[in-house]
Amino acid sequence: MTQECDTLLLAARLPDGRQDMRIAIRQGRIAAILAPGDTAPPAAQILDLQGDLLLPGLVDAHLHLDKTLFGLPWLPHAAGPDRMSRIETDRRLLPALPLSAAERGSALLRRCIAHGTAHIRSHADITPAFGLTMLEGVLAAKQAHAGAATVQVVAFPQAGVMRAPGTAELLEAAIRAGADLLGGLDPCEVDRDPKGQFDAIFGIAARHGVGLDIHLHEAGELGLFSLQEFCARVRAHGMQGRATISHGFCLGTLPESKQKAAAALMAEAGVALATHGAGGATLPPLSLLREAGVTVLCGHDNLRDTWGPYGTGDMLERAAIVGWRADWRSDPQLHALFGMVSTEGARVLGLAEHGIAPGLPASFFTLPAENIPEAIAQHPPRRLVFFAGRLVARDGVFLG
Ligand SMILES: [Zn+2]
């Protein structure tokens, strides 16, 4: 190949073990992957990776850009130890902060991007108190960083649907205003009306042809009931492959026979599970779910925000936390964790073009690691981050 490329990367290590490879980038895409001895094209820019591993852009499948406190001086955690106290703290605190949702969300987005994340699914609170303001903030942050990451937005009824009159109408308005998916929240514990909440959100999703991603914190048999109802509705509406249960804490509290039955139900309904390795809750049985054919993906959920002070924006670190909680140690298990923050996340987010191959978008990052297991377990600092052929971060610093 002799046609000039925009950037030529030297001495790349690929996840399949190939070393000293060169990557040619042209018009935002990987034009060629060249082995030692292959003729390289002329390039406007040449960067030497010095043997660093090159991995496809990470996927954070569950984030709350509107709740983050990034961009602000440190704020001590203000909420009480239960979900309803945190919801009330959001209502009181978020509108009073000196930075808008767009400014805080942008600060967090830049941290995620600098850690190699290329694709994000963020929830945005839709409540009678906030109206569409949090959604507008998240959409503004998304727009401002469209050249460095993609952001899918879920219209999320954080205060419930049936217990907060007017929310269903706001959710529909949120979809019209640019939200990509519809959320839900603990239809029994929060709304005490599972039929009402599911009638509302499935109705809106069907009218607008959008997918669903619901928060399900409910434990034990109550959570299992909500999960069964959700899967039944997904099948009835033909929404297989376009529905996700986030958290699914109940799955970790059930006896194994019921875990297997629930996993089979989710697999049949094409319902994915998003986990973040919550510290205060049971972890769903990730191996059992994957073996049953459920797609398991991973996100940060709360990231230095009104719900908790933890999180750095690094999805490799988050994958390591999930692996630690699952007691996964072998290389195949570490590869599975990487799938959850890359390939499987990309599939559920509907990203058709994801990976490292000629013709695909040049969205990847580099780091000093031998292979994927080391990248997960040690999560060394990111060196270069590219999105669609552009260098968007270097040595942990977002380049704008
Ligand atoms: Zn969440």
Account of the 3D structure:
With 400 residues, this protein is of the alpha/beta class. It folds into two domains: 87 residues, Urease, subunit C, domain 1, CATH 2.30.40; 291 residues, Alpha-Beta Barrel (TIM Barrel), CATH 3.20.20. The chain has 13 helices and 17 strands. Strands 6-7-8-9-10-11-12-13 form an eight-stranded parallel β-sheet. A five-stranded antiparallel β-sheet has the order 5-14-15-16-17, with helices on one face. A four-stranded mixed β-sheet has the order 3-2-1-4, with no helix packed on it. The protein is globular. The two termini are 32 Å apart. The site of zinc ion (ZN) has 6 residues, from loops.
Number of separate domains: 2
Instruction: Tell me which oligomeric state these chains represent.
Output: single chain
- Please report the distance between the alpha carbons of the first and last residues: 32 Å
Question: What would you report as the Rg, rounded to the nearest angstrom?
Answer: 21 Å
Helix count equals: 13
Bound molecules: zinc ion
Count of strand segments: 17
Task: Describe how the helices and strands are arranged.
Elements: E1 5-12, E2 21-26, E3 29-34, E4 43-48, E5 53-56, E6 58-63, H1 83-93, H2 101-114, E7 117-125, H3 133-144, E8 150-156, H4 167-176, E9 181-185, H5 194-208, E10 211-216, H6 220-236, E11 243-247, H7 250-253, H8 256-269, E12 271-275, H9 286-292, E13 296-298, H10 315-326, H11 331-340, H12 343-348, E14 364-367, H13 372-378, E15 384-387, E16 390-394, E17 397-398
Parallel strand pairs: 1-4, 6-7, 7-8, 8-9, 9-10, 10-11, 11-12, 12-13
Antiparallel strand pairs: 1-2, 2-3, 5-14, 14-15, 15-16, 16-17
The structure holds zinc ion.
Zinc ion binds next to loops.
